[in-house]
Amino acid sequence: MKWITRERPKIDRIACPWLIKNFVDPEAFFYYVPEPQVLEQAAVLGAIPYDVPGVEYSHEGAFCTFDYILKKHHLSEPALQQLAVIVRAADTDQFALAPQAAGLWAISAGLAHQHQDDHKLLEIGMLLYDALYAWVKHLQHEKHTGDPVEQMLVQMMKNYLAEKEPAKQRVPTWAKALKETIQDYVDTNFSLSLKDISQELDLHPAYVSRAFSKYFDNLSFGEYIRKLRIEKAVQLLENSTYSLTEIAYLTGFSDQSHFNRIFKKIMGIQPSVYRKSFEKGKKDTRD
Questions:
Q1: What is the pLDDT along the chain (287 residues), one digit of tens a residue?
Q2: Structural domains of the chain, count
Q3: Which of 31, 135, 205, 265 can pair with 198 through a Cys bridge, CB separation 3.0 to 4.6 Å?
Q4: Residue 41: inside a domain, yes or no?
């Protein structure tokens, strides 16, 4: 069988070929193409598309394409099930699910940076997942620190790190990068969609949508974007002579009416009233 997915693979798009070649179809061949071409080329090549939105072999709720292949093909081996958790944790930046996930992500991202040829990357990735599967199946209970002195030093380090661990939950790398990306787009007044930022971060849109509010003030993606636009509007109302129509345009609203409605919803008053109150406050301060 032929399989096809998005170019520049890192986690799921390498783990899935490894799983397919080893447990589903040993003769499988894989294509990597730009995302907009996946479905078109799938039809041309007679290939099965995977790990893209809207196809059978893709993310399903909180689960990755790797998980779906296990379910679809009834692969219930415990080692594969455990490997699936590691892949899912690395692919969705939920490192708390499996301690190995952060290392898998780091190695995968490094390999993608070093190799621009996707098929060369897949070849190396196959060896990586061979090794990880062997560890899960045969070696995970072995300890590197067998010596009593080494064990004592490791325990001392664990105790130290536990004392230093902040109480607040760690913000994942993708959320930090996303906050900067969104701010850049808002500052330059470019349109921004969930699909665009998910592609830029190499994360599945369904995961970003689901996890977004957890790291962005309990707001949805749309609510957070509107909040930033209103904050930008407040700055312009306070520090510029732009008209309300101009501010509506500069902050990405379709028209002044839309701007007025969202501003009042968030700030509690109309933008014209806010500007007058702010100017009056400045005048009273000078007096």
A1: 999 999 999 999 999 999 999 999 999 999 999 999 999 999 999 999 999 999 999 999 889 999 999 999 999 999 999 999 999 999 988 888 898 999 999 999 999 999 999 999 999 999 999 999 999 998 887 766 566 666 666 666 666 666 655 545 567 777 887 787 777 776 665 566 777 777 777 777 777 777 888 888 888 888 888 898 899 999 999 999 999 999 988 888 888 999 999 999 999 999 999 999 888 877 666 65
A2: 2
A3: 205
A4: yes
- Say how far apart CA 52 and CA 65 lie, in whole Å: 9
Angle between helices 221-239 and 271-286 (to 10 degrees): 40
**Whether 109 and 211 share a structural domain:** no
- The pTM is what? 0.60
Q: Do 182 and 130 share a domain, yes or no?
A: no
List all residues 6 or more positions away from 113 whose beta carbon is below 8 Å from its beta carbon: none
Domain of 267, in residue numbers: 174-286
